[in-house]
Specification:
Elements lengths: L12 H9 L1 H25 L4 H27 L11 H7 L7 H29 L3 H28 L2 H21 L8
This protein binds fe (ii) ion (2 copies).
The site of one fe (ii) ion has 6 residues, from helix 2, helix 3 and helix 6.
């Protein structure tokens, strides 16, 4: 397994303040993100049935993300909240719009790298949040979640290097880091994961 260093831009303190101000809204958005992460992993399984390593890894990921969803839903129930209907995530939609669709190989590489940067951003934000939470149980929950997301970004990058040359992966990854930064900075700060 490769050691990956993802130098994403840092989340601003304003984001943390927005989340603290409306933690209920944040946790609902978090739940929806976990459900979507699970669904996206299964979409990759459906699109690439002939890539056995990808299929195996994405089934495991889908189960793990669904388990995260279950855990967040428990917290939501304990706070007497209801998740409500799913909303579009402008961050993910803008990033999806940057995927290279010129050929099937470039498309697969970008889908894996998009997965990696989204997971890396999750790790960065959950870690930031965990440090700031006064509630011990919630803090430890978010620490664990951030460790999982760190594993997931490495998983996507390791998969990418199974199908593509390391140099190609690294070059395109550095472009994705820049794309992600621009997308992140173009969006308003709200009490949501992205
Ligand atoms: Fe997750
Ligand atoms: Fe994840």
């Amino acid at each position: 397994m490769n050691e990956w260093q993802l130098n994403l831009s840092s989340t601003s303190i304003e984001w943390l303040r927005a989340v603290q101000k409306n933690f209920d809204a944040f946790i609902i958005d978090h739940a929806l993100n976990e459900r979507k992460a699970s669904a996206s992993a299964m979409t990759l399984v459906a699109h690439y049935p002939d890539r056995s390593e990808l299929v195996e890894a994405m089934i495991d990921l889908a189960i793990e993300e669904l388990n995260h969803f279950k855990q967040v839903m428990k917290i939501i129930a304990s706070r007497n909240l209801i998740i409500g209907k799913e909303k579009k995530d402008p961050y993910v939609n803008l990033l999806r719009g940057k995927i290279d669709k010129s050929d099937s190989e470039a498309y697969l590489l970008d889908r894996l790298l998009l997965g990696a940067v989204i997971e890396a951003r999750g790790e960065e934000r959950f870690k930031l949040l965990a440090k700031d939470l006064a509630d011990k149980a919630l803090r430890s929950f978010y620490e664990k979640i951030s460790f999982s997301e760190a594993r997931h970004f490495a998983l996507f990058l390791n998969l990418a290097t199974k199908y593509f040359n390391q140099k190609i992966v690294e070059e395109r990854l550095s472009e994705w880091i820049e794309i992600e930064k621009q997308v992140m900075e173009s969006l308003p700060i709200t009490s949501s994961l992205h």
